[in-house]
Design brief:
There is one protein chain. The protein has helices spanning 17-26, 59-67, 71-76, 85-97, 111-119, 131-145, 156-172, 187-198, 215-222, 245-253, 266-280, 286-296, and strands at 36-39, 44-48, 78-81, 101-105, 123-126, 148-149, 178-182, 204-210, 258-264, 306-310. By secondary structure, the protein is an alpha/beta fold. The chain has a six-stranded mixed sheet with strand order 1-2-10-7-8-9, sandwiched between helices. A four-stranded parallel sheet has the order 5-4-3-6, sandwiched between helices. A hairpin with a 4-residue loop joins strand 1 and strand 2. The longest helix is centred in the middle third of the chain and has 17 residues, at 156-172. The radius of gyration is 18 Å and the shape is globular. It starts with 16 loop residues before the first helix and ends in a 12-residue tail after the last strand.
């Protein structure tokens, strides 16, 4: 974990097209090829990753990472730290391999996400409130129990798995010019950039962060990953203190494909959630609605055929009834 307020040297590796294609092959029959639907109110296409088996895109990276572990490591079990969706994905993937999964989650994790981890057979441990808290606890248990770590974003196999989303978007909409993605630790946006490149697309990607968690915006300005002192937002999946070194390296290696990073307020995210529910009948969690919020506020203006990633839907539908 980078120290707060300090820059971190970038890794030298990038995610190669062959790794993304291998991930796509490995995910056949596991991750859904989610639909791309046109949203009339926004005049953009929605990539509905909320329809994945665990309700979020995270299944792509988690399964790819676990399938590439040595057999002996898988037999001992896996562990991760997560605010929710990655944890559910690791539990789901581990169950498919018949291996144990321990998920360290924040004390503030939504009940729907804790229940989701347990539904797929994951063992839940609650630790602190920040990504640093739960990462520390997970590393302690990994060392003590011989468990293999499956990081939420800072790993080549995670980024390659998320990169399959880019391949799918180009297959479904070859003329795509703009993709809008939420930013937590950076695994999704880095995977999209690498996946679009692997597919031969010239599409550019906008990143969207909550105003209370501008870690990628700050890191790009600094020229290296920077850890924030604190973060806060209703978008619990986007409030990591820093972006990963590997995702940042991928983004820096593809500067022409990153259109920019914009910030959205929590009120705008709430408005986007309600629009998606009332106009599109989609129950989308705050992290998944951040991209729509960027369009509603005008922070991102669609350029040509545009795809908005709806990254997850693990939220209590009762929230939309008021």
């Amino acid at each position: 974990m980078p120290r707060r307020g300090r820059r971190v040297a970038a890794a030298s590796s990038v995610v190669e097209p062959a790794a993304i294609r291998d991930a796509a092959e490995g995910l056949r029959g596991v991750a859904l090829r989610t639909p791309l639907v046109f949203c009339e109110p926004l005049r953009v296409y929605l990539k509905l990753e909320n329809l994945q088996p665990i309700g979020a895109f995270k299944i792509r990276g988690a399964y790819n990472c676990i399938r590439r572990l040595p057999d002996a490591a898988r037999r001992r079990g896996v562990i991760t730290y997560s605010s929710g969706n990655h944890g559910q994905a690791v539990a789901y993937a581990a169950r498919s391999f018949g291996t144990r999964a321990v998920i360290v989650m924040p004390e503030t994790a939504p009940a729907v996400k804790i229940e989701g981890v347990r539904r797929w057979g994951g063992e839940v441990e609650l630790a602190g409130r920040t990504s640093e808290d739960r990462r520390g606890r997970a590393e302690e248990r990994a060392a003590r129990e011989g468990l293999a770590m499956v990081p939420p974003f800072d790993h080549e196999d995670i980024v390659a798995g998320q990169g399959t989303l880019g391949l799918e978007i180009v297959e479904q909409l070859p003329e795509v010019e703009t993709v809008v993605a939420p930013v937590g630790g950076g695994g999704l946006i880095a995977g999209l950039v690498a996946g679009l490149a692997a597919a031969g697309s010239a599409a550019r990607v906008w990143g969207v962060e909550p105003e209370g968690a501008p870690k990628l915006a700050r890191s790009l300005a600094a020229g290296a990953p920077v850890a924030l002192e604190r973060t806060a937002s209703i978008a619990d999946g986007l409030i990591t203190l820093t972006v990963g070194v590997i995702p940042f390296t991928v983004l820096r290696a593809n500067p022409d494909r990153l259109a920019g990073v914009v910030l959205v307020a929590d009120d705008s995210i709430r408005e986007a959630m309600h629009l998606l529910y009332r106009r599109c009948r989609l129950a989308v969690e705050p992290s998944g609605a951040a991209t729509t919020a960027a369009l509603l506020t005008g922070a991102v203006e669609p350029s040509g055929p545009t795809v908005v990633v709806v990254s997850g839907g693990n939220v209590d539908p009762a929230l939309f009834e008021s």
